[in-house]
Write a structure and sequence with these properties.
- The two termini are 21 Å apart.
- The chain is 76% helix and 0% strand.
- By secondary structure, it is mainly alpha-helical.
Length: 255
């Protein structure tokens, strides 16, 4: 397992895009600061300049490329030949992408503190009470944690789709479609008035509302029909389910 992790971290750290993405993230956060009014400066701080959207988008491209490209180019064969078990190869990739995902969220918090220190997007009082009767700094940490879960859900889907489809472009397209339209499709489904509402509100696309509902509860709760804790529990359950299902397909896959 240690060997697989070293290989995956080595490959990750030697990809130029991995080092460019934090710069892109910062530029997108600066863009968000100029695109919103001063009245929304606390929301900017809570949602780390809407980095949840930027990180999700960048992760879809990065994670899809890292995994599915190895299927497409048959580079996965070398890893499987050297590893004693397929599970080590699969688990190593999950760990590496999760660590990178965590690093991006930590960077987003650091960038937010720096941008607010320079009053970009307005100044805030970090200890003032904001949403959920909590100080703003705690709102920001909670939002970042929930987005870490939400982005991990997307990563689990990327791994599942990558195991099903060997074409990198198709994997990226499918996951971008889920990212941009998943919440809307789920909302339309839930608004259809189905008698199965109590069941379909637990569909995986509904879990993509986790972060946006946290910082805009009155609006998104009416759409999701689940509270924050239920969305969190559903997201964690689907992460586990998609990763296990992806591994079972990966294990049975013929190379």
């Amino acid at each position: 397992m240690k060997t697989c992790l070293k290989q995956e971290f080595y490959k990750l750290l030697h990809k130029k895009m991995i080092w460019i993405i934090p710069i892109i993230l910062l530029l997108l956060m600066i863009f968000a600061a100029f695109s919103l009014s001063a009245q929304e400066n606390r929301l900017l701080a809570m949602d780390t300049y809407f980095s949840d959207n930027w990180i999700m988008l960048l992760l879809i491209i990065t994670a899809s490329t890292i995994f599915s490209m190895e299927f497409q180019n048959n580079a996965i064969l070398t890893l499987l030949y050297k590893a004693p078990h397929k599970s080590e190869v699969y688990l190593a990739k999950i760990i590496v992408i999760f660590v990178y995902n965590l690093a991006l969220h930590v960077l987003a918090i650091i960038f937010t503190l720096l941008l607010k220190a320079f009053a970009l997007g307005g100044t805030v009082n970090w200890i003032a009470t904001y949403q959920y009767q909590q100080p703003l700094w705690l709102n920001m940490l909670h939002t970042s944690f929930l987005d870490l879960i939400a982005s991990t859900l997307i990563i689990s889907l990327i791994f599942l789709v990558s195991c099903l489809i060997n074409n990198n472009a198709v994997v990226i397209a499918v996951n971008l479609g889920i990212f941009f339209m998943g919440g809307s499709l789920s909302a339309d489904w839930l608004r259809s008035g189905s008698r199965w509402l109590d069941l379909i509100k637990w569909n995986p696309l509904n879990m993509t509302n986790l972060v946006t509902q946290y910082y805009n509860y009155p609006v998104y709760h009416q759409t999701s029909h689940l509270n924050n804790l239920q969305l969190l529990a559903g997201s964690l359950a689907y992460i586990f389910f998609f990763l296990i299902l992806g591994y079972l397909i990966f294990k049975k896959k013929r190379f």
